[in-house]
């Protein structure tokens, strides 16, 4: 024997014939919020297949692994997948006929209806297959994208779904919108494989090795979004939409000092899991769409006037109308309020006051200020299709209308960026949404974004004066921002009522609520922590109710809850004397407990006691009296009373204890399934129920921990 057949070495032919390769699916990376709470992740699902090709080796033994009764199989499967029985039968029968005709066919599938089957449905289907003694029906385990929060910054996050890769004819999860699409190559996992030599039945041959190439998980993207603040925003937007049914609505919250986007929500929206509610508009309205800002722009006209030394609040002007060449500028009520001060004019949102201010500033100098504030160009957030907006500057009348927010266009994100200069003592911060991108296979942080100052359009003194005037629009008896006041925090901001371009002809819509109502506000106004932009387009209001009412409801509900959640001290809370935390690691828990109590703190021991191995907060953190200090020791833990603890404190306890703590809700702890004093191990699930902060502000002890810890982290 030569060992060759038709010029090919027989041993190589045998190797090729019995070489087996299994593809290991690479898991798609997670998207998480700033506290690593899941926003998008892969979860287990199943794909339905029906084997149509008989295996002679098993048929001889009387065992069938292919479909024998196509009609009965179709009847059973139709009860579990969204496909008519006749169509299921046709697919199976066509496969059987192709095998009989000698075509290369092993199994058939059922398109979208047979993919992404959940665990419970798969278990029920498998039981039915067993009960009916069907053959040839298989459920193949795979991954699908899961969005645990439902509607949650949906136009920002986007969605991913299974798609057929035309190159290898395999299904893979692909981002179709938002961050899922933009960062698809970063998120997608890398497939692995198992290669081995087998016998004719597929078993590994003795004396041969399996070569395993592990699959690699896609990168984790950590956003700057805050899960709690985002949920506050989504809830407030849902409530407002049900009551006022506007055409559109938008809300964005940013950290005033860093530019981090903490929440972003728009309506209409959709559920990324089911795509229910997804319309033809896939635009992220905060970034990809422009609006005429209306009177919110007056905030920056005021800033320019103060910086130029042209703002004299107690000077007077005649309100009502202003003529610029052949164009007449009117106040909102046409006739004005007579002769009033410039301060009152701003508080009443007088267009005419802005025209007179523009005379003092100089209209071309004013345009330079708008450019310094970042208008007319993208802010440079790490997302595509950002609109630059247009600052109209060809004619004097355009510069006048721009001074009070008509004609020129901006994005809400530009408004947020510009407002950081006012909130942050003149330092303008670039908005950003991506915190880190981490390779989970190595733990390497491949991208880390930091706060980035992009300009200083005004001085700290100007910023402070602008904030004082903005606060007066909320507190003055004739201020347009009265409905935006909060019971426990001082707010400053500017209202806006912008005309909407007519969809069918030149000019603007008019009458009723055919406006874009908005508010750009910040709080606490003395030293702002948060900036929030809210807009509502064409709401259906009650007779006598202003269109700004739904805007105010979103702003006040969210801003109040957000500031409390972030442990920002309210107006009535007096300064608290603080003391630096000591280092207790290495000491006995008894000694540490005694010292903490002597210092006025409340110790919480995790474990059975003994040597302290970790603590929270860390050494040097300045803490007020009664603050909880967590001490980790070895052994099983005895649960404390979690009542009143914040979510962040629960997460800290969970991290130190490694217990199976499951959190439901937002805000502060109201219930726990296992009571105080219960001895638990890692195998005992501890369910914690949280609810939102109450209207009356009370400072739970754990809040001070988090406030001081966050201050230390900022430093």
UniProtKB/TrEMBL annotation:
Xref: CDD domains: PASTA_Pbp2x-like_1 (cd06576), PASTA_Pbp2x-like_2 (cd06575)
Originating organism: Savagea faecisuis
Protein family: Belongs to the transpeptidase family.
Compartment(s) where it occurs, according to its Swiss-Prot or TrEMBL record: Membrane
Composition-biased stretches (Acidic residues): 701-715
UniProt domain PASTA: residue ranges: 579-635
PROSITE patterns per UniProt: PASTA
Composition bias type Basic and acidic residues, residue spans: 679-697
Annotated protein name in UniProt: Penicillin-binding transpeptidase domain-containing protein
Chain residue ranges for the region called Disordered: 679-715
Key words, A-Z: Membrane
Organism ancestry: Bacteria, Bacillati, Bacillota, Bacilli, Bacillales
Main location: membrane
């Amino acid at each position: 024997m030569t060992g060759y057949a038709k010029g090919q070495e027989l041993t190589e032919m045998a190797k090729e014939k019995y070489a087996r390769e299994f593809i290991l699916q690479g898991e798609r990376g997670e998207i998480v919020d700033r506290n690593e709470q899941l926003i998008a992740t892969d979860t287990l699902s199943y794909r339905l297949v029906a084997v149509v090709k008989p295996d002679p080796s098993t048929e001889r033994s009387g065992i069938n692994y292919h479909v024998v009764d196509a009609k009965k199989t179709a009847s059973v499967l139709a009860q579990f997948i969204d496909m008519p029985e006749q169509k299921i039968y046709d697919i199976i029968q066509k496969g059987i006929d192709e095998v009989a005709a000698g075509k290369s066919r092993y199994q058939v599938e059922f398109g979208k209806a047979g993919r992404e089957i959940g665990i419970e449905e798969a278990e029920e289907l498998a039981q039915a297959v067993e009960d009916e003694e069907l053959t040839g029906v298989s459920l193949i385990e795979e991954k699908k994208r899961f969005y645990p929060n439902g509607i949650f910054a949906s136009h920002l996050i986007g969605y991913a779904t299974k798609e057929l890769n035309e190159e290898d004819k395999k299904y893979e999860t692909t981002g179709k919108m938002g961050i899922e699409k933009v960062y698809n190559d970063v998120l997608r996992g890398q497939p692995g494989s198992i290669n081995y030599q087998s016998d004719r039945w597929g078993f590994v041959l003795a004396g041969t090795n399996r070569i395993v190439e592990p699959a690699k998980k896609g990168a984790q993207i950590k956003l700057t979004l805050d899960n709690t603040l985002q949920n506050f925003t989504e809830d407030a937007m849902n409530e407002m939409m049900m009551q006022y049914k506007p055409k559109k609505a938008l809300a964005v919250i940013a950290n005033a000092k860093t530019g981090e986007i903490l929440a972003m929500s728009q309506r209409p929206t959709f559920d990324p899991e089911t795509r229910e509610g997804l319309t033809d508009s896939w635009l992220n309205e905060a970034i990809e769409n422009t609006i005429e800002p209306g009177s919110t722009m007056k905030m920056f006209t005021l800033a320019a006037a103060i910086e130029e030394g042209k703002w004299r609040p107690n000077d007077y002007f005649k309100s009502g109308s202003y003529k610029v060449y052949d164009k007449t500028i009117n106040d909102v009520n046409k006739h004005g309020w007579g002769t009033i001060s410039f301060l009152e004019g701003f508080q009443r949102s007088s267009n005419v006051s802005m025209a007179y201010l523009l005379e003092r500033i100089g209209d071309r100098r004013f345009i330079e200020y708008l450019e310094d504030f970042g208008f007319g160009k993208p802010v440079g957030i790490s997302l595509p299709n950002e609109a630059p907006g247009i600052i109209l500057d060809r004619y004097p009348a355009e510069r006048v209308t721009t001074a009070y927010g008509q004609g020129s266009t901006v994005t809400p994100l530009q408004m947020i960026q510009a407002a950081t200069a006012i909130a942050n003592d003149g330092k303008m911060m670039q908005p950003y949404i991506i915190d880190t991108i981490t390779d989970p296979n190595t733990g390497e942080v491949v991208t880390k974004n930091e706060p980035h100052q992009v300009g200083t359009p005004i001085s700290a003194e100007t910023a402070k004066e602008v904030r004082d005037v903005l606060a007066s629009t909320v507190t003055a008896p004739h201020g347009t921002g009265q409905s935006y006041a909060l019971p426990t925090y001082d707010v400053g901001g500017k209202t806006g009522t912008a005309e909407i371009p007519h969809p069918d002809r030149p000019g603007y819509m008019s009458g009723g609520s055919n406006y874009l109502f908005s508010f750009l506000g910040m709080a606490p106004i003395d030293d702002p922590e948060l900036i929030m932009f809210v807009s509502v387009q064409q709401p259906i209001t009650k007779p006598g109710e202003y269109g700004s009412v739904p805007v105010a409801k979103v702003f006040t509900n969210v801003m109040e809850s957000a500031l409390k959640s972030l442990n920002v001290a309210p107006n009535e809370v007096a300064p608290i004397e603080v003391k630096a935390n000591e280092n207790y690691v290495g000491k006995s828990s008894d000694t540490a407990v005694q010292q903490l109590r002597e210092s006025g703190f409340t110790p919480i021991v995790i474990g059975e006691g003994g040597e302290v191995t970790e603590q929270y907060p860390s050494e040097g953190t300045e803490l007020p009296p009664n603050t909880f200090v967590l001490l980790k020791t070895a052994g099983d833990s005895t649960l404390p009373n979690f009542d009143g603890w914040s979510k962040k404190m629960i997460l800290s306890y969970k991290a130190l204890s490694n217990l199976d703590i499951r959190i439901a809700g937002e805000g502060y702890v109201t219930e726990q399934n296992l009571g105080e004093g219960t001895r638990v191990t890692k195998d005992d699930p501890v369910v914690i129920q949280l609810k939102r902060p109450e209207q009356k502000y009370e400072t739970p002890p754990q809040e001070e921990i988090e406030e001081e810890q966050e201050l230390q982290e900022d430093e």
